[in-house]
Write a structure and sequence with these properties.
By secondary structure, this protein is mainly α. It has 3 helices and 2 strands. Helix content is about 40%, strand content about 5%. The chain has a two-stranded antiparallel sheet with strand order 1-2. Strand 1 and strand 2 form a beta hairpin. The chain is globular.
Amino acid sequence: MENQYQNWSKIYQTLGNQWKDKLNNFAEVPLFLDSKMSRSLQIADLIAFALFRNFEYNDDSYYSIIKDCFDKEKSKQHGLYFLKCKEQKNT
């Protein structure tokens, strides 16, 4: 499985995404690690925390810093989807 991840990262570095953007600064190959052992996983944890705080607690103090970093085509945002759950009625 590790070889497959490495191949995918090579493809992404060379061909890019559907908008032909290439990944120029890929520091590590994808691994399953404790986030304390990888800077890439630490930043992924920080992004996940920023999204969680924004959408669960309406706290955009971290999300406001990263919100313009997600893929966009004109004003349409790609790669970040948020589904609201309907509140359940107490019966």
